[in-house]
Amino acid sequence: MNKVIGKDELISLFEDKATIMMGGFMGVGAPKFLVSILVEQGVKDLTLITSDTATPDTGVGPLIVNRQVKQIIASHIGTNPETGRQMIAGETVVELVPQGTLAERIRAGGAGLGGILTPTGLGTVVEEGKEKLLVNGKEYLLELPLRADIALLKAFKADKAGNLIYRQSARNFNPIMALAADLVIVEVEEVVEVGELKPDEVMTPGILVDKVICCGRIS
Amino acid sequence: MRTYSAKELIACRVAGEMRDGDVVNLGIGLPTLVSNYLPEGINITLQSENGFVGLAPAGSEIDPDLVNAGGKPAGIFPGGATFDSFMSFALIRGGHVDVTVLGGLQVDQNGNLANWMIPGKMVPGMGGAMDLVAGAKKVIVAMEHTAKDGAAKILKSCNLPLTGKGIVTLIVTELAVIRVTEEGLLLEEISPYATVEEVVAKTEAQLIISGDIATMKGLEQLER
């Protein structure tokens, strides 16, 4: 099956009010082309689940600057002043989640788990309103799974079946988000034929990936 | 001996806490200077929470796919390994990181740390800091002893939102090295440029002072 699509098909997949997971850490490993399409399309009232909101002109930043996002679930917003401004002005709802907890909540959402138990955030504002459980004498917070309508990811290379390989530190949240969304769209720099990637080098199995769009290296 | 900046003193003293073979996560800013002062024979592996071990300075050729936890260009030493955010935080939370070094806005005598937000002023988010303090075996707070306006940062009780409760192992400032113990904050060392009276005056928390206080160790590395 060839999962590679063009821009025309891509555009038909986005709708207002969608919950979108977006890979990347400070813009590295973020799907720059897909972000530019969302900005071009102007879909709005999005809920965004992402590591951080990068800077105004990297990663998911342009979507925030363009006011297309109404809710953000992220671990860090400090490098994009526009996110903080919108939060303080009450224009955008921001839920800050410890980065490791965010990763585990996404993984839980994609792994069929009802939540995870973590010591992270105990004794801080993060524990407010959450159930605490005692396991073997140690206290943990119950953190609930996260899922999305769409995951927009970035990989280095894909085969036509959607098997993915990432480079260096550009992997970050991409593999776990591939588990946790109803529709998984991946932007890649290069597409190869099925069989060209060795099974041992595949980092995300293609069965998780619905659509692949090839756009070369975007600097 | 020339005089040194607060940052140099702190980074140098923190470097002296590293043991050969430690896996270490250094926070952004002041803590990253620590690598510059590692004593001879002490080799550590740096963990970068965005997904790799073997963090190195960026080479002459910048790879846009390889950055440190601050999003700045980085390198990776031979023998390093890259992974995803799930693995990265499993390492951090699961006790596979020996030492984390973080900056601090406030620390208190119960080992609480506040370093991620100032209500009404600055809400950048906690990033990976809450996971790091929850999971690293040793949590070192590396910070200037007082705020820019002279206000104490080592307090009886933090009044800013906490990053973690009862998790600090050691506080290193340009004036002193202070250990968090069951009994309270133990003043272990002072800078050659400070007096015990000065440290006490600039600290709101009660300090345990017993016997002669040692001079800050390992500062000969500054001369390297």
Can you tell me about this structure?
- The complex is a heterodimer of chains A (219) and B (224).
- Chain A has helices at 7-11, 32-41, 61-65, 81-88, 99-111, 174-177, and strands at residues 19-22, 46-50, 69-74, 93-96, 116-118, 132-135, 138-143, 148-159, 164-165, 181-192, 211-214.
- Chain A has a single domain (7-114, 145-214), classed as Glutaconate Coenzyme A-transferase, CATH 3.40.1080.10.
- The radius of gyration of chain A is 17 Å and the shape is globular.
- In chain A, the strands form two sheets. In chain A, strands 1, 2, 3, 4, 8, 9, 10 and 11 form an eight-stranded mixed beta sheet that branches.
- Chain A is α/β, with parallel strands linked by helices and 219 residues long.
- The longest helix of chain A has 13 residues, at 99-111.
- In chain A, helix 2 (32-41) links the parallel strand 1 and strand 2 (46-50).
- Chain B contains four helices and 14 strands.
- Chain B has a domain at 6-32 and 97-219: Glutaconate Coenzyme A-transferase.
- In chain B, helix 2 (85-93) crosses helix 3 (129-135).
- Chain B is globular.
- By secondary structure, chain B is α/β, with parallel strands linked by helices.
- The interface between A and B is large, with 48 and 42 residues.
Which features would summarize this protein structure in a list?
heterodimer; A: 219 residues; alpha/beta; Glutaconate Coenzyme A-transferase; eight-stranded mixed beta sheet; three-stranded antiparallel beta sheet; 6 helices; B: 224 residues; three-stranded mixed beta sheet
* Whole-number mean pLDDT of chain B: 95
Q: Helix proportion of residues of chain B, in percent?
A: 10-25%
- Tally of DSSP β-strands of chain B: 14
Characterize the quaternary organization of these chains: heterodimer
Determine and state the CATH class of the domain at 6-32 and 97-219 in chain B. Alpha Beta
Estimate what percentage of residues of chain B fall within beta strands: 25-35%
Number of domains of chain A: 1
**Proportion of strand residues of chain A:** 25-35%
The CATH architecture of chain A would be 3-Layer(aba) Sandwich
Please write the string of helix (H) and strand (E) elements of chain B: HEEEEHEEEHEEEEEHEE
What is the CATH architecture term of the domain at 6-32 and 97-219 in chain B?
3-Layer(aba) Sandwich
E-strand count of chain A = 11
How many helices of chain B in DSSP terms? 4
Intertermini distance of chain B: 12 Å
**SS-derived structural category of chain A:** alpha/beta
The helix content of chain A, as a percent range, equals: 10-25%
In CATH, what is the class of chain A?
A: Alpha Beta
Radius of gyration of chain B: 17 Å
